[in-house]
Amino acid sequence: MRNQSYTLLVPFFLFILFGWILLRAGALPVISDPLPPKPAPRYGMHTLMADERTLPLVRNAGFDSAVQLFTWWDIEPQKGQFLWQVADDAVDIAEQQGLNLLVRLDKQPTWANVDPLTPGQPPVDLKEYDRWVRRVAKRYKGRVTAYLIWNEPNLAAEWSGLPPDPAAYVEVLRVGYAAVKETDPNALVVSAGLAATNTQNADALDDRIFLQRMYEAGAADYYDVLSIHPYGFGFPPDDPHDAHGGTNLARLEDWREIMVRNGDDKPVWVTEMGWTIKGNEHSIWQEVTRAEQADYLVRSLEKIRSDYPWVELITVWNMGGEASSEWGGYSLLELDGSPRPAYYALQEYVTSELE
Description:
The protein is of the alpha/beta class. The chain has helices spanning 2-25, 54-60, 72-75, 85-96, 126-139, 166-183, 207-216, 252-261, 290-307, 341-354, and strands at 42-47, 65-69, 100-105, 146-149, 188-191, 226-228, 268-270, 311-319.
């Protein structure tokens, strides 16, 4: 029986040896592992308060990421006096829910302002901002997926009232990038999402011009992911690219063209996007119905997946429920905390993809 087993093994070993000889001689092709398919974009919600009420709703909708502002002036109202409880809870609950947490770092306290505020330089003391970012990154090392360095600096309202200055913002980005990478190297650094605007004055600078000037100031060296805010401005997701001065979802194409022109192939994340059912006095023209809000949000996810495959994360603004007249119209929740039709529509769409 033993001799018979050896006899059967001889042809097998000869076959292996013959194949090895052919492979060495180049007679057989080398078959490498197939490339994995490109993953579908991930989905996130921007929370106004990342807590035990909102984060489970994000998870239950099938979304895997949450974006939350860690407001500097609330966490460190006086230099060296830290109030971490709200931020700690956000990180803890995000972990419990299995969510990727993306933290935005801006809203500097008055004591961290440059004094006097001067056009042509950042409004924040860069040494203080460096210290702040390092403090946060150290506290949550390994627990926060990414840090967004500032928000919409092309608006004076987000730049301490100063005229928007792309080169000055790049200095903030440079400091924030170094602070994160030297403290938590595995965390991603995300550039500030820019506000879509066609304005060019002391109050606002067209985001496309601002982005190009960011590149000219060397911004591409200081982020891992480019962030964008393609709001719909009351128009449906399939509104043509050249309609309404480009104030629609198709503005994504302008940003991509600028990236390509500057040789930037980094990932792109949409960190804010939405439609409002209640505009303020300046944006009443942007209002949509509750049914349209639900329809437009789902169709925007479909369009981005279909037409803009280079977008890796799509974040809806916002999971709120607060009474703020400025942001409440975009919320997926009513003031009493009950979900709007848009929440259920997104939940149905995203969860059906996961099945």
